[in-house]
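User: Teach me something about this protein's shape.
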Amino acid sequence: MTSFSDLGLSETSLQAVRDVGYDEPSPIQEQTIPPLLEGRDIIGQAQTGSGKTAAFGLPLVEYIDPEIKDCQAIVLTPTRELCIQVTQALRAYGEPKGVDVVAVFGGAPIRTQQAQLRGGGQIVVGTVGRVLDLINRASLILHDCRFVVLDEADEMLDLGFLEDVEKILSRTPSGRQTALFSATMPPPIRKLADRYLYEPEVIQVKAKTLTVDTVEQFRLEVNQKDKPAKLVEVLASEKPTQAIVFARTKIRCDQLYKTLRDKGMNVRALHGDMSQGSRDGVMLSFKGGRVPILVATDVAARGLDISSVTHVVNFDVPVSPDVYVHRIGRTGRVGRSGRAITFVEPKQQSELEAIEKHIGIKMTQWEPGAKTAAAPAPAEKPRRHEKPQVDKSVDAEGPWAKLIVAAGKAEGIKPADLVKAVTSAAGIGGEAVRDVKIFERFSFLSVPEGDSKRIIEAVSGADVKGTKISLEPVGSEA
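Assistant: First, the predicted structure itself:
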């Protein structure tokens, strides 16, 4: 079995891997990290949840010279949510090396981001529009940017960003190294890769090696006019902990939201016509577990990486088998099983057959209490993932609470020991613990403020290097 130490990473990066609690590389990491370390351009076809952030993030951190304060690498993301998610991960990977990561995205004051860039920003993670704006204002200079990552390029296409992506690429050195990741590979993305990547190595993680085989998959044949009522019936029968209902259009999304709300369900809608502030509020509520049902379009749901989603309902059949795989990959995460139910109208049998051929199984007809052997129990088939097998439904975007630990260097405690103790006891990812500082007799660390009380209760009494630790709040920081 391959380990991270077999992939050519430096000891500093291996320390970062240990600090965030990763055990072994996922397939995309195993196949991508070595060629990136060799300086190759790569095209990675993999869905969210496959581990691609670490696949490009660890080699990217290896390239950074911490003595040079200029921007040396840029990661382009299609959405603010994904930008924040990638930034948190890269900060965790780069902390042992002292790498400075700056996030730039729309919906936040540009002057603040300009100030952050003036102060550093060896790695910049940004949404396409805000990055281009900062370039045009001469606040972001890419002359020394030797590493470029395009993350979820197919969504950039969906949102109409490819022209702006090309403008940004034209501002980077011709000798740069480029990594392009996309769940699907439509012709415009292939054309972009042909134009801007040099002899790329193509890495494909097939759907069946991702999350499909941890998901029980059902079909439900229903006439179009009966679909809203059938959705109410399905949700009432399944009683999901958290569910995402996918609709094909923004109008349908709003209609279903109102239907479920009028039935007394705690539900929210998420689509591209909503303001950024409204989208942020919905995302945080869903991530925090305060909203059990989310009705969303495909584009809006990108960047949702939540381990507690138990069900996906395809109210509309996805437009392609790849999109189907991407949708149902929102459940069955981090070693857990999930359930996916696809509504199929009589005229959509050929689309259903195309999906079944792609995933290699026949879906089971749904009825109340239906079971299928498609999803093995997690204990029978452990999965390999980018993040540890923990509940990652904390709000790792802040604000943050600063905690004090009554133990430190005198007890032989190191930062990795505290991170491991907190993540293990509280069931959170390593990205949710930051700013760990160890002094002689005490230590500090920061956790998401909204989860601080639960984390304090879970961790207090844990044994670290033979010392029973306790956590206490000392304030909060945004």
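Now, about its shape. The radius of gyration is 22 Å. Residues 113 and 151 are 21 Å apart (CA to CA). If you'd like, I can walk through any region in more detail.
User: That's plenty for now, thanks!
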